[in-house]
Each structure stands twice: as C-alpha cells, then as structure tokens.
C-alpha cells in the first residue's frame, strides 16, 4: 500500500518525536558553567558571531539556531555581510538539516558552514563567503544574573566572549576577496524563549575605547511592552559585572521597506555611564525566511562617559521586528496580510 506524502511526513514526525527527550525546563537557580559552550537539550539555542570592522569596511552577523520545533529538531543558519564601502547588504540562509554539535572543543556544523574551536582556544568560522579566525582576548562570561528574559516571555541562559580579534577574508559579491581584521563578539544562549512572537528585544554588544565591553538588552513582550532592561560591563581583565539602574531611551526611528519600524538612535544612562548610540548604516533589515523572523542587525557607534571617563563605542545592534507572514515568505508565520 502506498502512503501519501503528508501521511509519510506525519509518521516520520511521530517516530522522531517519540525518540527524543523533552526539552529541559528552564531553572533560574541553575547558572551556566564557566566554560559551557556546548549544545543543550533546550527548546531554543543559538551561537552568534557579529562584528563591526570599520577598517575593513565591513560588518557581519553569523547565527546558528538549534530549535526543538514541536518535538522535532530544526536547524537554521543566517549570515549577513554589509559592504560598508559600497553600501551593499547580502543575506545568506542555510536550511540544511545536516547538523552536528560537540564540545569540548566547540564544533558547530550545519551543512558546509562551521564554527570550529582549535587547541589554542581560537575559533575558525567558515560560512558562505566568510573565512575567519577569531582569537579570544577575554574569557567566556555569563551575563548577570546568568540569563535574559522573564517568566512571561521565556528565559535564555546567556554567555559571551565579548572581544575576539578577527583575521581572514570575506568574498564579496562580484568576486572581491577582502582582507579582514577587527573586533568580534561571540554569543551563546539557550532556554525556553520563542523569539519574534513571544519575545522581542533591542540588544547591543559594544567595544569601548577604554578596553571594556558593554552588553545592553531591552526585552519586550508580544504586545511591545518593555518587561526587562539589563546591562553588563566586562572590564579589560574580562570580569563581568551588572550595570545597575540602566535605562535605554529610544530616539530616531527608521521605517524599513517591509513597513516595520526600528529604533536606530538611543540614549543609554545609568549612575555609572551615559552613551549616545546611532546606527552606522540604516538599511540592515534581515527578513529570514527559514526562521520567519524579521530583525535589524548591523553596525552601531557612539560616544559618552563610563565612570567619568570619556569613551567611544563601536559594535553591533540587534532589534527584533517581529514574525514574517507566509505571504512574505515566512516558514512558520501567520498566513499573511
């Protein structure tokens, strides 16, 4: 007897689901380990490497997602490369379900994209046009209190290597092979949050001229209400501390070609710091069809004071714009407009 493709897919889904353990529940009392870069049995997990490389005229954002979607593993990769000299943005999506994860050392593979950690602790990122070596200048840290989010919108354990020296090449559209160097930020998060619909956020990973690094995180619920504002400062020695009393005040708004609005100008204040931040380039919206998420990811810069000392800031910003409809090409979004 022949089965229909839909019935066959259903049978495969049932068999796969029955073989997989349920994702672990999020426990806020459990802190991530000091060197825990490996994969977890979580509903959502990702590794990000992002860098604003002004001397090379580039910015890039690589993301690897590992999702438990209705009991079935699902993998998605994104890579955005901004050629700042020629004002061009290229987005690459990796939909391969041939993926593997191991640690230690960290090995993240999806199809022919990979992030591999070497014996000396450095990372080799080979994804699409990227061929980069990333050498950590600071240790892995857990951002206080060890996670982002709230019980309402879901929570994600949160670790970063906030400063890595990048070297290598990026092959640009048209064939130019551009030599690349600069500072990169590596993130690792996992937990029970569903980005886009359940939770949205405004995030910065910034390298400051005094040698410290600043993480800013403003989390919003599905209705757009702010439910958390968090920040941590990683000092030149690599020690992460919470920045208490921080506020992130939205300023200039940019409306994208998709009709979504993103705040691209910000005033950040706390008793210890005051920063004005601005996008280095506006047109950085990513409409990622393999995750159905619309978000702005791109280079930012600013200036201000930290502990009474004047500083400049360079890094990346990420602002979640919501879920793609199926009419926009979204794989898991609502039917359309």
Automatic annotation (TrEMBL):
Residues 1-24 form the signal peptide. The keyword Transmembrane does not apply. Residues 44-192 form the AttH domain. PROSITE patterns: PROKAR_LIPOPROTEIN (PS51257). One of its GO terms (molecular function) is hydrolase activity. Keywords: Hydrolase, Signal. SUPFAM superfamilies: AttH-like. PANTHER family: BLL1000 PROTEIN (PTHR38591:SF1), HYDROLASE (PTHR38591). This is Predicted secreted hydrolase.
